[in-house]
Design goal:
The chain contains eight helices and no strands. By secondary structure, it is mainly α. It folds into two domains: 72 residues, Rna Polymerase Sigma Factor, Chain: A (Orthogonal Bundle); 86 residues, Orthogonal Bundle (Arc Repressor Mutant, subunit A).
Length: 177
């Protein structure tokens, strides 16, 4: 433990500076650096095999950064999809909206129960991911997973139904729905 603490003390500043250049958010960089060193601690049995610790640390940092950035991008895409869905799917008296509602109801009916519940709480009750997690007693990460899966399933279902999201957006915008 003492040897590991020495490694952390020696390299933490350099890893932090490297991570911060990519993520640009101080608190997020701190969290990533902590996660990197936790990962190394968990795999500490392998450290005896490591010939060049700085290179090893750089590779782990790079891989973790790539994963963190990819996750951040996917979270943004997921949230944008969710926001777009709330804009697209608003109950209205128009024929297009009613027809779209039928397709969405059919797609939602085919979802697994927990995914369907997450989607319904988000769409109908307009609950945030945190509120859904608390209400269903699941993690926020699980909520994100189910919401992303639900949106992907819905997208595929609508694609199979020959609905194009762009066409729907244009119709809704054109008719000021």
């Amino acid at each position: 433990e003492h040897a590991f603490a020495s490694l952390v003390d020696e390299y933490r500043g350099r890893v932090f500076a490297h991570v911060l250049t990519y993520v640009k958010i101080y608190d997020e960089a701190i969290e990533i650096v902590q996660d990197i060193f936790i990962k190394i601690w968990i795999q500490r049995d392998r450290l005896t095999e490591v010939k060049d610790f700085p290179a090893y640390l750089f590779i782990i940092s790079r891989n973790y950064l790539v994963s963190a950035i990819r996750k951040r991008v996917m979270d943004r895409v997921s949230l944008q999809d969710e926001d777009m869905l709330h804009e697209i799917v608003r109950p209205d008296n128009t024929l297009e909206a009613k027809e779209l509602e039928k397709y969405i109801a059919a797609a939602v009916a085919q979802m697994p129960p927990q995914q369907r519940m997450v989607f319904t709480l988000s769409r109908n009750s307009r609950l945030s991911q945190e509120e859904i997690a608390a209400k269903m007693n699941i993690s926020k990460r699980t909520v994100k997973f189910h919401m992303t899966a639900a949106l992907n399933a819905l997208r595929l279902f609508l694609k199979d139904a020959d609905y194009k999201v762009v066409l729907i957006l244009l119709l809704l915008h054109f008719y000021n729905l």
